[in-house]
Write a sequence for this structure.
């Protein structure tokens, strides 16, 4: 993948933009998804600048437990986790967003280089500038990339003693086969002495799961509806968010929360290759969030080539943090 943009952010910081959302590929991906019998939009399109801000707000609503549970795990077991991870030369933060989760671990893990990675380029660049101001001696290499497609990183990212940090159960946005492929690609990218530290949400009742993705304040609804505005910018469609409603349901068969946008009445949407008619009640599937039993996910890690797998949970046993050696 060619380098699209390099931006120096300070004496020890730089930003490499390897992703551009305004490409014909993005437009084609959106059209292809919306043309399917079950219309869908890839969840990566949820994370434009506004979507990233809205997701940060979601982590603060009372119903959304994953962020609090994961933080409790790091607070309760931080020293043990740091001991399990060992020496870290390069900390690669997948889906870094505001970089706060990684930042909380800096004191314990003491990385020499921090590599935040995210698809939301402008949002990440702002986050990198903030972290660089707080840690002027830390070597920071920000990377704007669609890491679901590739983990090819700039040569400035150090190859040894890498720790891939993948928090927040973001791996749950992938189906099981895709998650296995992602774990295998992370394993292969770890390099000598490489490790993985990631968060995984666990199976629970729908009474707990569904409100976490459909909060009373409507922040998650705004986050989901915003993807239609993002689609309009990318492909010139004419979605009107007033025509749609946010829906979240736990699919027990697939062990996943599904987020949908439901058409409130029959409507036509303009697409680059024509139009699509949505009947009242028809939905666009925008995101899945798979939930795992710990033993199932540990098996997936082993199948991807990881070993020396450690596991911690919160006091309610709602969430898991895994560490593993490549």
């Amino acid at each position: 993948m060619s380098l699209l943009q390099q931006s120096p952010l300070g004496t020890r910081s730089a930003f490499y933009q390897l992703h551009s959302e305004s490409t014909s590929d993005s437009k084609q991906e959106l059209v292809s998804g919306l043309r399917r019998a079950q219309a869908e939009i890839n969840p990566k399109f949820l994370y434009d600048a506004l979507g990233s801000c809205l997701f940060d707000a979601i982590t603060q609503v009372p119903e959304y437990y994953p962020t609090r549970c994961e933080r409790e795990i790091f607070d309760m077991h931080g020293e043990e986790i740091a001991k399990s991870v060992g020496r870290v030369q390069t900390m690669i933060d997948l889906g870094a967003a505001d970089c706060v989760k990684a930042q909380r671990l800096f004191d314990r893990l003491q990385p020499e280089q921090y590599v935040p990675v995210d698809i939301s380029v402008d949002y990440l660049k702002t986050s990198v500038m903030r972290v660089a101001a707080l840690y002027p001696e830390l070597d920071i290499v920000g990377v704007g990339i669609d890491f679901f497609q590739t983990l090819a990183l700039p040569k400035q990212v150090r190859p040894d003693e890498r720790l891939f940090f993948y928090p927040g159960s973001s791996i749950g946005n992938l189906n099981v086969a895709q998650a296995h492929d992602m774990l295998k690609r992370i394993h292969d990218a770890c390099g000598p002495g490489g490790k993985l530290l990631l968060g995984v949400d666990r199976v629970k009742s729908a009474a707990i799961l569904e409100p976490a993705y459909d909060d009373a304040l409507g922040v998650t609804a705004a986050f989901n509806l915003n993807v239609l505005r993002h689609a309009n910018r990318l492909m010139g469609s004419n979605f009107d968010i007033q025509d749609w409603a946010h829906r979240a349901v736990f699919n027990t068969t697939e062990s996943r929360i599904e987020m949908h946008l439901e058409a409130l009445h029959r409507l036509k949407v303009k697409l680059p290759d024509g139009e699509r008619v949505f009947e009242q009640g028809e939905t666009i599937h925008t995101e899945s969030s798979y939930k795992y039993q710990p033993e199932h996910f540990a098996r997936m890690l082993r199948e991807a080539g990881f070993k020396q797998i450690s596991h911690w949970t919160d006091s309610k046993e709602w969430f898991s943090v895994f560490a593993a050696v490549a």
